[in-house]
Amino acid sequence: MNTEKPRIMLLVPNLEHGGSERQAVLLALASQRKGHQIAVATFHKGGPFEVVLEKAAIPVFSLGATKGPILVVANLVRLLRQQRIEVLYSFLPPANVLASLSGLLLPKCRVVWSVRSADMPLAGYSLKTRLAYGLERLLAGLPGRIIVNSRAGYEACKRKGFSEQRLTIVHNGFDTELFRPDGDARQRIRAEFGIPPDHIVIGLPARMDPVKDHPTFLRAAALLSKNRPDVWFVCLGGAGPPGYADTLRELAKALGIADHIVWAGDRDDMATALNALDIATLCSVSESFPNVVGEAMACGVPCVVTDVGDAAYLAGDSGYVVPKGDPAALMEAWGRLLDPTTRSSLAELARRRIIENFDLEQLRRQTLIALSDA
Length: 374
Fold this sequence. Notes:
- The chain is of the alpha/beta class.
- It folds into two domains: 8-173 and 359-372, Glycogen Phosphorylase B (Rossmann fold), CATH 3.40.50; 183-357, 3-Layer(aba) Sandwich (Rossmann fold).
- 44% of the residues lie in helices and 16% in strands.
- Helix 1 (19-33) packs across helix 15, helix 3 crosses helix 4 (93-105) and helix 4 (93-105) crosses helix 5.
């Protein structure tokens, strides 16, 4: 076996837009550029990130998850044998569970988990999701290594009883060539949204999920709009649970800000869309290491984040941190960033922080070290 560059397979539930999915793809691309033999397996075929991998000639395999978990495990075991995979690196609880079950049948294949949450509130999620998290906790003694993407996630895993000796922190990495300041994109997307070029745009780049706490964003927007009619608010992200988007739109109407809210939906061009913002926001009630904050920072957009997970650590001195669920505090932080001089200085600091601390090479290098130690 080539211990320096083992044959690696990444296992992710899907290749739709999502923070974990993006990190898996970035890791695959960065590893391939350094000569690593890498492939990706998913539960379901399709998704925008599958196109990205195919363009890079990285093999993508579908396990046919609709046929049931037993057959999926059998398909995965067969695939690992066929591809002579030496390390299986899985992302998110459903994939972690299947990876460990497959590892029991292939003891020579090293199994490594990626845990990408910290104290995830599961009350509002489906039974299937809660079951996956429960099984992950029960099987946490099986993988040779568990990679967490935040210090908050590390502590959460310890509280769940995961072995500290198995835990390794590898922070997310960001493509600073793709996510970069782009003045032309800024004007183009603002025109698409119907926002005057000289107005301020505050954005919430997040899927419409209760954990992202859009209501706090909307209530803070209502507070700021009382005195600043030149400020617009943009929600970038998919629709989420059935009916949730309609509930949020009704709240915006009730708050009297519907005319200054842009519901941009899911975007394939997030690097472009983020450039339309003057200020980015994270309102989440729970996070581990939020991708959207790092991506916005890489685009030179200063951020206001809630004090959850490693969001404050990621933002560093380039943004502001507020308590979760506090519209008044969020509005006050936005107010400080309305000053163009403050905003400009923090924008430069934000991008520099990402380039110096969270680039793709550190993601690749630290992940490969952890995989080799599994």
